[in-house]
Amino acid sequence: MSLFGTDGARGIANVDLTIDLATKIARAAAKSLGSGARVLIGRDTRISGPMLEAALTAGFTASGVDVLLVGMLPTPALAYLISKMDCQAGVMISASHNPPQYNGIKLLDHQGRKWPIEQEELVEQMVLSGEFQAVGDSHIGRVFHYETTAIGHYLRYLESLFAGLIPELHVGLDLGHGAAQATAERVLRNLGVHVHPLFHEPEGSLINVRCGATDPSTLQDQVLLNRWDLGLAFDGDADRLIAVDHTGHIVDGDEILYVLATGLKQQGLLAQNTVVATVMSNLGLERALEKEGIVLERTPVGDRWVAQRMREQGFVLGGEQSGHVILAQYASTGDGLLTALALLAEIRRQNQSLAELVEAVERYPQILRNVRIEKTVAEWESIPGLVELVKEAEHSLGRDGRVFIRPSGTEPLLRIMVEGRDLQEITMWADRLESVVQHALESAKA
Fold first, then answer.
1. Alpha-carbon distance 182 to 53, whole Å?
2. CA dihedral 123, 128, 130, 133 (to 10 degrees)
């Protein structure tokens, strides 16, 4: 695997992602930016965050780049602040939805977008070559501290967008012990929401552990128990949103896209009546959008590709089933809190509950299997018999089913997804496909 996956350089902190590697990434990125540039650095709540922040700061300043530290905040907040604070780039220290022992380094450009793959590859080449040159003492970069002040600009921006548009509901808020604790509760309260926070302590050793967008089961229970109107769950760096309606039904990124897309279309604001999603989005979303005269365009997995297609074609809405949603009118990247506010505003505009707004989406059953593989395995097509079995499954499932296989961009996993109307049938195909992969892995070890 390359140094950079679908969402930055990521690995177990102090094992894969070491201070030495972080320093090298910073020095390589600095060479790409040029001496005299300004870089904004933020982090989520993980214990390894300050350690990596110090390493990155050392690498950048040793290369003549000024560093502005904004402390603990969501990735979308950092993305928003880069241009506002006159910086040429930003670095977010986060492993997003991954477990606490992981961390990551995301490089963002001056507009808050992920660096192009070509630029990441140049950084990787420099890291591997180790060809760095420190600047003279008169050109060492400076460090500026904005940990307590910068976040206010982002909060005021969101509040200005939705002032007077948010309903006075009782909302359960699962902050996942992550970066959303710095923003979500405050903004929602200021906009008139009755907030009931869960997992709101910024405890990095518990980030994403049985909580947050990756596991909203406790939020489900609490919404039902307390009869709240809905629940909102964020991942570690708060660029994802998963919701729970008042019946306890989990509303994923696909259903959120449906609500926002149909709302924008009703107002004549959905560019080309098109939504961008990935190949992982449910067929049920595609069919529901078709009935509303909305086209679903699919990209490879990763919000990078969604954002790129949106920019190329001028689309205003896109996202992933996992809860990344990009509202191009307001932000350059996925933003869980912005998405939550847009969803709440749509609930008020249509005067319907979240459950009523998503009932038109029939979610097809999906089976997702994750098979642990060696990091060197990248081409699943080379596994004997797998391509043929995929074709057989796709022929059997027909128009109402799909098979999708891909290596994870953030973990050493091969992901196998089978989708269709018949749960028993897709389970059978998932079992057969996983068995072929496992057999190949065992044969390779023998």
1. 18
2. -10
Rounded distance, CA 386 to CA 379, Å?
A: 11
Residue the block writes with tokens 């690498």: 59
- Cα within 13 Å of Cα(203), Cβ side: 11
Instruction: Indicate the residue type of 379.
Output: E
Residues of 174-190 as b/e, b for ≥16 C-beta within 10 angstroms?
bbbbbbbbbbbbbbbee
Alpha helices per DSSP H over 319-422: 336-350, 354-358, 386-397
Tell me how far CA of residue 60 lies from CA of 36, 39, 79, in angstroms: 10, 8, 19
CB 263 within 8 A of CB 255: no
pLDDT tens for 127-184 read 999 888 788 888 999 999 999 999 999 999 999 999 999 999 999 999 999 999 999 9
As a whole number, mean pLDDT of residues 114-122 equals 92
User: How many helices (H) does the chain have, and how many strands (E)?
Assistant: 14, 19
On whether the CB atoms of residues 403 and 418 are closer than 8 A, the answer is yes
* CA pair distance 314, 445, nearest whole angstrom: 49
Q: Is the four-CA dihedral 349, 355, 360, 365 of positive or negative sign? A: positive
Separation CA 49–CA 72 (nearest Å): 9
Q: Does the active-site annotation cover 96?
A: yes
Quote the DSSP letter at residue 270: S
| Residue keyed to tokens 């991954």 | 98
277 residue type, one letter: A
- Residue holding tokens 């994750």? 370
pLDDT digits (tens, 9 = 90+) for 319-339: 999 999 999 999 999 999 999
Sheet holding 274-278, edge to edge: 295-299, 274-278, 317-319, 325-327
Q: Phi and psi of 91, rounded to 5°?
A: -130, 120
Mean pLDDT across the chain? 94
> What global pTM score does this model have?
0.90
Q: Are 296 and 277 a contacting pair, CB within 8 Å? A: yes
Q: Which of 258, 243, 222, 279 is nearest to 359 (CA)?
A: 258
Q: Which of 48, 96, 281, 322 is catalytic?
A: 96
d(CA 301, CA 306): 8
